[in-house]
Design a protein that fits this description.
- It contains nine helices and ten strands.
- The chain has 224 residues and is of the alpha/beta class.
- It folds into two domains: 152 residues, Rossmann fold (3-Layer(aba) Sandwich), CATH 3.40.50.1000; 65 residues, DNA polymerase, domain 1.
- A six-stranded parallel sheet has the order 6-5-2-7-8-10.
- Helix 6 links the parallel strand 5 and strand 6.
- The N and C termini lie far apart (35 Å).
Length: 224
């Protein structure tokens, strides 16, 4: 497999934008619980958890297609069942992947903090509230914030444009922090630096470069 260099060098940073699932939190516990619940409701067999974890990242409708592509007639009811379960209690099945004090130290250095995630607004904000983080981030961009048809690269481009109107910043002073190939592709699409967190949902064996970190804490320590 070809070696792919990660874009940018993460030099002088004025704005850090984070992915959520696999980056800020390990949400696989709650996502799998809700996915299994919805599968049962519509009469489908849930996948093995290890296989499910490998598919985390895209919106839930795409994950459904990965496992049940020939069951499109069940998709609408499945997604409704998943959302009802996840938005009410499934979202609590997560583990925080970083030291809150380190993130607060970054914030206190006047670094602008944002989020771009494929998660809808309700579970994203519920998780952030549960971690007492809702006020730490300057901007939170979810799947349904601007246009439900937007994918991650569209939302990342949108938030970068808005931040540029708020503060004096160049493209080289942004970094997007994520754990999947989709996150990497979004950063490259927007021509900003990318930092890969390797303990998330994607294996970075085919990538090379200095911007691969074994954990989010290691990335945060780099910028303290």
């Amino acid at each position: 497999m070809n070696q792919i260099m990660l874009h940018g060098s993460c030099g002088m940073i004025k704005c850090i934008i984070f992915d959520v699932d696999g980056t800020l939190v390990d949400s696989s516990y709650g996502l799998f619980d809700s996915f299994s619940y919805a599968s049962k409701i519509v009469g489908l067999k849930a996948p093995e958890k290890s296989l499910f974890k490998k598919n985390i990242g895209p919106p839930i409708d795409k994950i459904f297609n990965n496992f049940y592509g020939d069951k499109s007639h069940l998709k609408e009811n499945f997604i409704k069942s998943f959302r009802k379960h996840y938005d009410n209690k499934g979202y609590l099945g997560y583990k925080k992947k970083f030291d809150l004090k380190k993130l607060e130290e970054i914030k206190n250095k006047n670094i602008y903090l944002g989020i771009v995630t494929n998660k809808p607004s309700m579970p994203t904000k519920n998780i952030l509230k549960d971690m007492s983080l809702i006020d730490v981030f300057n901007m939170i961009t979810c799947k349904d914030t601007y246009n439900i048809s937007y994918d991650k690269k569209d939302n990342l481009k949108k938030i970068i444009s808005i931040i540029k109107q708020k503060i004096s910043i160049s493209d080289s002073e942004f970094v997007y922090v994520g754990d999947t190939r989709e996150d990497f592709d979004a950063a490259n699409y927007c021509e900003i630096s990318f930092a890969a967190i390797s303990d998330g949902f994607y294996k970075w064996k085919s990538f090379s470069g200095k911007n691969i970190y074994p954990s989010l804490d290691k990335f945060l320590e780099r910028h303290l």
